[in-house]
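Ops channel
N.P.: pipeline sanity check, posting one input/output pair.
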């Protein structure tokens, strides 16, 4: 394969909640298992650094055919604008961005399979690297809309239950 391309995808949804509310919800990575179809739990490696750029966390992931953990570093933490992390420090970038919309917030989830990740897969999987990269890409394409729908449901139910939509 030996390509230095970047695979990426993003999707958006309108959520009837403020950007600050959504940021606070999504930057609490300990709640990730509530909306992710693959990542069942996350925890901060150092609670004192929670939510800050440079903080690391561990995620526990489950699929029917395998279970694994990843370590990720927060790379963007701008309340009400963007929260993002990179798996393995340089392999895959995941993030949420927030923009004002007429009836709430346009929430966008983005995913990028970075060149270091592709190179790591080539080294780890050899001739099977392309199939493994294709599989991970399909998981992201399938998972993003499910994640966004779950976040919308959770956020809007929280607002309806009386949690403040504004900071």
């Amino acid at each position: 394969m030996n390509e230095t391309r970047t695979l990426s995808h993003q999707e958006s949804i309108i959520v009837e909640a403020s950007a600050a509310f959504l940021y606070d919800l999504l930057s609490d990575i300990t709640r990730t298992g509530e909306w992710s179809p693959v990542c069942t739990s996350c925890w901060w490696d150092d609670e004192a650094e929670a939510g800050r750029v440079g903080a690391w966390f561990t995620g526990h992931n489950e699929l029917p055919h395998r279970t694994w953990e990843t370590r990720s570093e927060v790379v963007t933490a701008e309340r009400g604008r963007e929260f993002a992390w990179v798996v393995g420090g340089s392999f895959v970038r995941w993030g949420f961005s927030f923009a004002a919309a007429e009836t709430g917030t346009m929430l966008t989830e983005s995913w990028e399979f970075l060149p270091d990740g592709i190179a790591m897969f080539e080294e780890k999987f050899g001739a099977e690297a392309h199939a493994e990269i294709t599989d991970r890409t399909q998981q992201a394409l399938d998972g993003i809309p499910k994640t966004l729908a779950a976040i919308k449901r959770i956020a809007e139910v929280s607002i309806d239950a009386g949690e403040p939509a504004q900071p």
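N.P.: looks fine end to end. The chain is about 30% helix and 35% strand.
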